[in-house]
Amino acid sequence: MDLIVKTLEGKDAGKVSLSDTVFGLEPRQDILARMVRWQLAKKQQGTHQSKGRADVSRTGAKMYKQKGTGRARHHSARAPQFRGGGKAHGPVARSHEHDLPKKVRALALRHALSAKLKADELIVIDALVAAEAKTKNLTGSLASLGLTNALIIGGAELDSNFALAAKNIPNIDVLPVQGINVYDILRRGKLVLSKAAVEALEERFK
C-alpha cells in the first residue's frame, strides 16, 4: 500500500510503499487487549502491603480466660476483628507480571500498526528534524498537520532539537523506533512515523 509522505510543514514529499505483512493485517482486538494487559501488569509496582496479625505491634497474650466469663472465647488482640489488630487477607508486595509469548507480542505490534493505518490515523513524515529547540515553532508545525494528540516515532537516533522542542507539548509523545510499543500507540490518537522508522519496522519484521 502506498501512503503520501509529508514534511513537518505539511507539504507533500513523495510516497512510501508500506508492507502488507506489517501494516496490512486485519486488526484483532483480542491480541491487542492481551498485549495491553501484559504491558500494564509489567508496569505495576506491586509495592502494596498491609500488616497482618503477625506484623502488628501488640501483645500476643490471651485476652482473658477461656471459660467462666460469659463472653466469646478469644486469644490474641492482634486478631482482625479488633481495633488495632492485623488486616485479614490484605494486599502483599508481589510482582504482577505474567508471561506472554514473544511471537504474540510481535504480532500485537503489527496489529496495532495495521489498526492505525486502517483507521486513517497513520502519518509518515519525511524527517523529524528541527532547526532549533523551540516548542512554539514545533507546535505550529504540528497544528498544520492536525496533530493535537499523537505518538511520534523517529529513527534509531532522535534529533535532539526536535526531542527538546516536543518535550513540553501536552498529549505529544516522542520515542525512538526501538521504544515503539502497543500501549502507547493505542493511547494516542494519531501515529506519526518517520521514513527511517518505517524502514526499521519493516526490516524488523522481515
Automatic annotation (TrEMBL):
Q: Where is this region: Disordered?
A: 64-97
Gene Ontology terms, MF aspect: rRNA binding; structural constituent of ribosome
- Which GO biological-process labels does this protein carry? translation
GO CC annotations? ribonucleoprotein complex; ribosome
Key words of the record: Ribonucleoprotein, Ribosomal protein, RNA-binding, rRNA-binding
What the entry lists under NCBIfam families is as follows: rplD_bact (TIGR03953)
Query: Know the name of this protein?
Result: Large ribosomal subunit protein uL4
Q: Which organism is it from?
A: Ferirhizobium litorale
This protein's gene is called: rplD
